[in-house]
Amino acid sequence: MNVKLLRSLQVFVKVADTGNMSVAAKSLHMTVSAISQQLRKLEQDIGLSLFNRNTRNLSLTEAGGIYYRTSVELLNTAERAHREIEQLQLVPTGELKIIAPEGFGGGLLSQPLQTLTRDFPKISISLTVTDEPTDIIASGTDLLICFEPMSDSNYTTWHLATWERVLCVAKGHPLADAELNSPEDLDPHCHIVHRHIEDYVVRGPEKREVPLPKTRLDVNSMQTMIQLTKDGIGYAVLPEPEIRHCLEDGSLVQILSEWELPNYNVYAVTPKQDSVPAKIQTAIGCLQDWFSTI
User: Fold this and answer.
1) Is the pLDDT of residue 80 over 90?
2) Would you say 267 and 146 are in contact if contact means Cβ atoms under 8 Å apart?
3) CA-CA-CA-CA torsion sign (221, 223, 229, 231)
4) Which domain holds residue 156?
5) For residue 156, what are the β-bridge partners?
């Protein structure tokens, strides 16, 4: 609601309650002249007199009585809204809409989501996992987890973690037991890549940088990419936290381990706001705490 209108309604209600502009002015820390101007403006706006005036006091006209009841309701509604908004800033409250990469649905979010649902009962969570580009503002998203910071001034970016990438194949793939000296040795085999992730350059023991061979298969889903690699279709660069269990149980094998791949960063992106709601601050804190241990 218009702040100036709210102030005018407060003046009007105070004058109606006291029946005296001087008393109202003292209570509101205003001058009588300022009170009078506010009332005249309201009467001009509605085209009717709000008060019957005499030398001693004021009384409401019929129109004033109607306007008074409505004004009290509006002021009470505004006050409730103000309290609820203040509550949002202090206590994590309300629905939290999160969009995350599909690969995070494999367990990376379980711990922070458990913390949020267990420790903050006033939060409800709507989680969408997708590897497709998303318009945060159009979708009404509170928090987007992604791999690139947002330079747009409409967004705020928070760094969550820095993780490693691993070049790997299935344990039964011919490359798993092959003697490999450089990325060129991979050329006869199928290179699987994610459609929305940049091409990689690997750095050798002597700091020689070599691009991986040309893509033979691209997909738009990290979970699918991991599964295709496990099924022996080809080799791929995969995020270490998402396949750690596969490396530990031997279903995936790291290759060319002496060659370095660039690490990748994980970010949380939120719509730009003057004051970040407590639910978003809390969620980012939970994500940072958990991701730092991975």
Assistant:
1) no
2) yes
3) negative
4) 94-161+265-291
5) 270
Compute the distance between CA of residue 272 and CA of residue 61 in angstroms, rounded to an integer: 47
Q: Within its chain, how far is the Cα of 161 from the centroid?
A: 16
Residue closest to 259 by CA, chosen among 188, 213, 215, 210: 210
CATH number at residue 231: 3.40.190.290
**94 Cβ neighbours under 8 A, 6+ residues apart:** 88, 122, 123, 124, 277, 279
List pLDDT tens digits, range 185-243: 999 999 999 988 877 889 988 788 889 999 999 999 999 999 999 999 999 999 999 99
How many residues comprise the chain?
Answer: 294
Q: DSSP letter string over 105-158?
A: GGTTTHHHHHHHHHH-TTEEEEEEE-SS---HHHHT-SEEEESS---STTEEEE
Residues 113 and 257 in one domain: no
Structure tokens at 63: 């129109």
